[in-house]
Structure formats: structure tokens, C-alpha cells
């Protein structure tokens, strides 16, 4: 049996703190710590209650990568953040090379 | 289903310690990490390694897997398959959308009974997978069929894996890396709790003609030397249909023409960039040679002048 499902882009309906935590299989506190240190939600915690925080696709991908690096390599949060930053930069440069036909 | 030798995947003995397994996994996952590996099958290998470590790195799951390995038909080589004993085990986690059939079936069976009979209520886990879309899909939207293997309770309260087919609507204008969330399409909950959600990451299929960066699209357009030199109107096929474009006179290879708003559609659409590439007609007959010889004789043109030649 086939079910028709319509997905919602996270850019149209962003995740709450609890939803992001569940999608990454972590406790909400894990997310809060990484927002407060500027690793997630790049511009720092937005004003207002934690319940007002909203996370889009970029945050979800980044949070899952952070959790993966932290758990696989027993890395501390800052080191994992550095690895994820570098990894995103590599991906950005590779896309640029591809567009320039230099890959 | 075929038995998968997770110990072999990680290159360790069946008697390996937890520390040895972790060490082997870390070494291999670094080697095959898609961000750094040059191996053509790095993505696939990383998934296999993650699946193997997901089992062998967890004491409970490893014990269940080892028990499975002792079944008579478990490791029969080419024809090897396994039939998990009914009502076997409890308390194991279920699989995610990225795992193999073997993994899904293994943990549906070993995890099934305890969860199905439990009074404990717990929302199902979220699942994650990726879906590749073409540039045509991005411009026009699309429907895609995906098949998931998910554990479900049967009539006797046991959990078995069933295939679930989803027809997913891909909205027009998605970009690389965006996540589509499908509520309630993840792993089933226990004790009547709701299912988790399914997240699909959008990945672009490589396209021979177009390149994409953010919402901007780049297309190389071959032009003749006279179109480039004299300018004029040319028809160019683009992802949103053929458009008539004016080539400015004295254009060279590499000139970029911007078609505003013809990139990836959205409330703020990207732009389409046409990169001109001047293509010379071959001098392979007398007439063509004569034309080139006339140009050589009558045009004072030295492209190496700036080099001092």
C-alpha cells in the first residue's frame, strides 16, 4: 500500500528546541549548550524564551554532524565544532570548484 | 536475507574487545569519510561501517548479533541467510531509514516482542534518509516513491519488518541540503505513543549541462565566432524552457550573461548565468580553409601581443 505524504521544508516550518533534540537523538540541554556557545544558531541565542528558538535545515544537518563527531571520536564540543566548520568549508569550496569546472 | 559479517566489515576478530572495535571503526571511518576520502565508494562504505559499528559498538546489540551468528544457517556463504527465532529478545532499538535490510530485519525481530507487549509509552525515533532530485524536479516539483522497511506489530503482538511505500511530494524550488519533514513517518512508537518523523535530505543529481550554487544556476552556451564577434540573438535551452538571448558584440569565451530570476524558483529566485564558449568551426575542407586564410591575411590580430610576442 502506498501512502501519499507531503513533506514540509524546515525553511517553511522550523523545528523547536525539543524537535531538533529528538531529531538528533540528544537531550534538549545538549542543544542549549551548543547554542549558547555559538556552535548552533550562528548569531547566538535569539532573544526570548527557549521555546521561541527555531531551527532550520542547516541547524539540523550541523547538529547531527556535531553529535556524530562527538560520539564517534569522543571529541569535546569545541573540537567537534571545528571539525564541522572545516567540513562545511571543504564542501563549499568543492561546490565552487565544481561550478568553475575545476573539479 | 543475507547474513552480513559486521566483524569482517570492521576488520576485527569475533573476540575483539570493545576498545579494539572502537579503534578499528574510528580508523576506517576516517579513511572513508566522504569529506576527505578519494575512494569512489566512500559514501557506501561509510554507511556500512556505521551500520556495523552501530551493532558491534553496543553491548546488547552485539550480544544479539553474536547469538544470530550461531544460528545454523547464519553464515552459509553465498547462499547464507538467517531466520530469526520467533519472539526472540527484547529491548533493542529499531533501525533507521539508512540501514540495510539485514539490519532492519535483525532489530525488528530482536526488538519486537518486548516493545510490542510493553505498557511503557515512548514516541518512535525519527528516521533520516536522503533523496536525489534532478534539476527538472527542482524547477517543476516532483513526486517520488520511496520504500522504507519499518518494524510493525503483527496480530500476535510480535514485531516484524514490513515494507512501507511512500509517495513523497518534492516541492518546487528546493535547494541542496534542505530537509523535508514528514510527520509520523519515522519509527513506530511503543505502548500507543505516536510514531517519530521522517527527515529527507535533498541532494542534487549531478547534471551534465547545468551547475548549481545556492539558488544560482550556471550553463555553458557554445556560440560561433561570428555570433560572439558581431553579437545577435540566439535561442538557448534553459531549465525553465528555451529563451531568446542577445549576445553582445565582441564577446569572448568566458563572458557571463545573467538572466535575472531564472535560477532556482522561490519567493526570491536565483539567477541563471550563461557562460559563453566560442567554438571554432573546423578547417577541414577547402572553403573553410580559404575563409580562415582570408581572415589571417586581412585581420591584424595578434592574441599574444600582451605577452610581448
Task: Outline the secondary-structure elements.
The complex is a heterodimer of chains A (103) and B (309).
Chain A: E1 2-6, E2 8-9, H1 17-23, H2 28-36, H3 57-73, H4 77-99
Helix pairs in contact in A: 1-2, 3-4
Chain B: H1 6-10, H2 18-31, H3 42-56, H4 59-69, H5 101-117, E1 127-133, H6 135-140, E2 142-153, E3 159-170, E4 179-182, E5 198-204, E6 210-213, E7 216-223, H7 225-230, E8 232-238, E9 241-247, E10 256-259, E11 272-278, H8 286-298
Parallel strand pairs in B: 1-5, 7-11
Antiparallel strand pairs in B: 2-3, 4-5, 6-7, 8-9, 10-11
Helix pairs in contact in B: 2-3
Describe, in plain words, how this protein is organized in 3D.
The complex is a heterodimer of chains A (103) and B (309). Chain A has 103 residues and is mainly alpha-helical. Chain A contains 4 helices and 2 strands. In chain A, α3 crosses α4 (77-99). Chain A starts with a strand and ends with a helix. In chain A, 23% of the residues are buried. Chain B has 309 residues and is an alpha+beta fold. In chain B, 28% of the residues lie in helices and 26% in strands. Chain B has helices at 6-10, 18-31, 42-56, 59-69, 101-117, 135-140, 225-230, 286-298; strands at 127-133, 142-153, 159-170, 179-182, 198-204, 210-213, 216-223, 232-238, 241-247, 256-259, 272-278. In chain B, the strands form 4 sheets. In chain B, strands 6-7-11-10 form a 4-stranded mixed beta sheet. In chain B, strands 1-5-4 form a 3-stranded mixed beta sheet. In chain B, strands 2-3 form a two-stranded antiparallel ribbon. In chain B, β6 (210-213) and β7 (216-223) form a beta hairpin. The radius of gyration of chain B is 29 Å and the shape is elongated. Chain B starts with 5 loop residues before the first helix and ends in an 11-residue tail after the last helix. Residues 76-96 and 112-116 of chain B have low confidence and may be disordered. Classes of the chains: A mainly alpha (103), B alpha+beta (309). The A-B interface holds A 1-11, 13, 15, 22-23, 25, 57-58, 60-61, 64, 72-73, 87, 90-91, 95-96, 98-99, 101 and B 25-26, 29, 35-36, 53, 123, 125-126, 128, 145, 164-171, 174, 177-183, 185, 196-197, 199-201, 211-213, 218, 220. β2 of chain A pairs antiparallel with β4 of chain B.
